[in-house]
Amino acid sequence: MKKNNTLKVLLIAIFATVLLTWILPITYFSGSLATDVRHPAGLFDFLGYPLGILPGYFILCSFYVLLVGAFYGVFEKTGAYRKVCDKIAKLFKGKEIIFFATVVTVLATIVAFCGFTYELMFVLPLLATIIILMGYDRITVALTTIGSIAVGMIGSLFGANITGAYIDAINQSASTTLSYTSLIWVRVAVLVLGIALLTFNIIWRLKKKVIKKEEEKELIAEKVEVKSRKGKKRAIWPAIVIFDLILVLMIFGSINFNGAFGVTVFDTFNENVMGFKIWDYDIFAKILGSMGLFSGAIGTWGALDFSMFLILATVVLAIIYRIKPNEIFDSYKEGAKKFGLAALLMFLAYTVLVTASNHPIVLTIVKPLMEITNGFNAITLAASTFITSIFFIEPYYTASAILPYAVSVIQDTTVYPLIVLVSQAMQGLALLIAPTSIVLLGTVSYLKVSYTDWIKNSWKLFLELLLLCIIAFIVVMAFKLV
């Protein structure tokens, strides 16, 4: 606990949230603003929330990262994992700027298009091995991964889970027709400049930090030689193809084809397949099930589908590389163990969200900020959204918590696209430093970096991105781009 205080910080955040439910009255908006007496979270409420989370959506993130660890446990047994990392590290030796600029650009762009957050932790172990083999430390790995996801969220373009969440909340509350193209070029500019700032911060760090030997042993994949029955080395390309295929399916399956681009072919195809009948028996619907793999249309896939990809991939790898059943089990166990703390922290973080949802104190906190000025004010809205994002770690819940009230008092519909930009930017900044950020918690716990060490090494990036966002808000208002 002294070395890695992340759990302690999260428990303090949970306790503070519960304490606030005893201090503050509740405020909520449902067609009209309502304020009521205090609705404190009792002992059995607090203990029951984690149990209530277990069967629902919120446990999925923990299940997913455990499967990521299990997949890498088997992937390492193929021998391909370490060989690929060695080749990439050697290829970019002396070309570190190109490597980090490319990685940051690719990751942030994936987030901006697909709406990924914790799902992108699929590449965390691979990047950790490569970056440490190149001679850099855990903080550099964390900056690359957490920073890229935060920047991608700040400049989100078409992600249904990010930009789409805010657009839907405004459209439903104000009966408007906001689209993903509203302020698109401003969001592209913010994304590009955010990528540049993050890359600069990483490059600046490269010049002064090196890794320690014990860190190499903990995070670098082991070298494994897999041979066929005839004693020949097995080819590594099947494992590489499977890894790449998972990543491609995750990206392609998450692009918001219908909502952002109006492409309905995948929805139609899915309806036809699931509705296909033989003798009045919808065979594919029965085989796949309502929550099974490919049961949803391409463009709507999420962590549940990705989890199934990982399970299937480990089975295929085990068959191709003739990994024995007991070795598969051991690899699964060892791989999942590396993400055990990450899964626990990500699960506990949702306790804050559930508590703040059942005891609506957040609007009580931010309402005075939003009412400092009459009508729309980008700075006060930004502060309100940032605070809300600490309690509500997913954009959908942030949007539902304050945007209905915000649009009820902001009658000027022309600023609604800017509200979307402000909201996603503040959510991205909260993801970067909030003690309830599941991306932050999952990444630093896997890397065994303490929360305080992360804050010491990321606060400058946070301030730079905050300044970038404020400038973007001012430019939009000054030049009347909305």
Overview of this protein structure:
The protein is mainly alpha-helical and 482 residues long. It has two domains: 6-256 and 299-478, no CATH class; 261-298, no CATH class. It has helices at 6-23, 43-53, 59-77, 80-91, 96-114, 124-133, 138-154, 163-174, 184-206, 213-219, 237-254, 257-261, 265-275, 283-288, 303-320, 325-338, 340-358, 362-370, 378-391, 395-409, 416-433, 438-447, 451-478; strands spanning 25-29, 33-38. A two-stranded antiparallel sheet has the order 1-2. Helix 1 packs parallel to helix 17. The longest helix is centred in the C-terminal third of the chain and has 28 residues, at 451-478. The protein is globular, with a radius of gyration of 23 Å. The model has no long low-confidence stretch (mean pLDDT 88).
Can you summarize this structure?
The protein contains 23 helices and two strands. The protein is mainly α. The chain has two domains: 6-256 and 299-478, no CATH class; 261-298, no CATH class.
Task: Record keyword descriptors for this entry.
2% strand; 69% helix; globular; single chain; two-stranded antiparallel ribbon; 2 strands; 482 residues; mainly alpha
Mean pLDDT: 88
Order of helices and strands: HEEHHHHHHHHHHHHHHHHHHHHHH
Tally of DSSP helical segments: 23
Domains, number: 2
Unreliable spans are none
Structural class: mainly alpha
Helix content bin: 55-70%
Rounded to the nearest angstrom, the radius of gyration is: 23 Å
* Percent of residues in β-strands: under 5%
What is the CA-CA span between the terminal residues?
49 Å
Numbering strands along the chain, what is their spatial order in the largest sheet? 1-2
Overall number of strands: 2
Largest sheet: 2 strands, antiparallel
Shape: globular
